[in-house]
């Protein structure tokens, strides 16, 4: 737990987390994204304050692949996404931040409506809009995610 770290604060309940914890393994936590990337965007982050994928332990690494696959399948299915982005930037300004994989649904219908180009361009457009996801819709999605994946909070 690192003071002032948003990822640590959300896990510790220092800041409110809409939808609550979606899933936790020995080393990882799954929750809904609090940023403006839309309902259905999950985060997968290590429990400990880790700043680089290169610093993951062997046991953390072993859990990661299956967890990202399951989270991605969950998002694709529940959000009926045409594609699911799995990405990690984890830069706070230009300082390394608590790593967190963003597992984000994307749809062809967003072309033109949100951004002319997909991928990081779509994400930038969504951050520029800055629309936080509706907390009730997030809570409902998290309930469905726990049921879909057989996850207990
Ligand atoms: Zn942290």
Description:
There is one protein chain. By secondary structure, the chain is α+β, with helices and mostly antiparallel strands. 35% of the residues lie in helices and 19% in strands. It has four helices and seven strands, in the order H-E-E-E-H-E-E-E-E-H-H. Strand 1 and strand 2 form a beta hairpin. Helix 2 (58-79) crosses helix 4 (135-149). It starts with 5 loop residues before the first helix and ends with a helix. Residues 2, 5, 7-8, 49, 98 line the site of zinc ion.
Strand order of the largest sheet: 1-2-3-7-4
Order of helices and strands: HEEEHEEEEHH
**How many strand segments?**
7
The biggest beta sheet is recorded as:
5 strands, antiparallel
Roughly what percent helix?
A: 25-40%
| Second-tier CATH architecture | 2-Layer Sandwich
> How many helical elements?
4
**For the terminal residues, how far apart are their CA atoms?**
20 Å
Mean pLDDT, rounded to whole units?
95
Count of discrete domains:
1
Annotation keywords:
about 150 residues; globular; 4 helices; alpha+beta; binds zinc ion; 7 strands; HIT family, subunit A; five-stranded antiparallel beta sheet; two-stranded antiparallel sheet
């Amino acid at each position: 737990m690192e003071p002032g770290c948003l990822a640590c604060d959300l896990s510790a309940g220092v800041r409110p987390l809409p939808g609550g914890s979606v899933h936790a393994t020995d080393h990882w936590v799954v929750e809904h994204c609090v940023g403006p990337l839309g309902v259905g965007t999950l985060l997968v982050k290590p429990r400990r304050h880790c700043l680089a994928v290169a610093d993951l332990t062997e046991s953390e690494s072993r859990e990661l692949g299956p967890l990202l696959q399951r989270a991605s399948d969950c998002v694709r299915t529940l959000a009926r996404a045409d594609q699911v982005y799995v990405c990690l930037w984890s830069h706070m300004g230009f300082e390394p931040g608590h790593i967190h994989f963003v597992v984000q649904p994307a749809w062809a219908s967003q072309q033109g409506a949100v951004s002319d180009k997909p991928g990081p361009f779509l994400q930038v457009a969504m951050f520029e809009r800055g629309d936080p996801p509706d907390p009730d819709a997030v809570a409902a999605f998290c309930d469905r995610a726990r049921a879909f994946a057989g996850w207990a909070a």
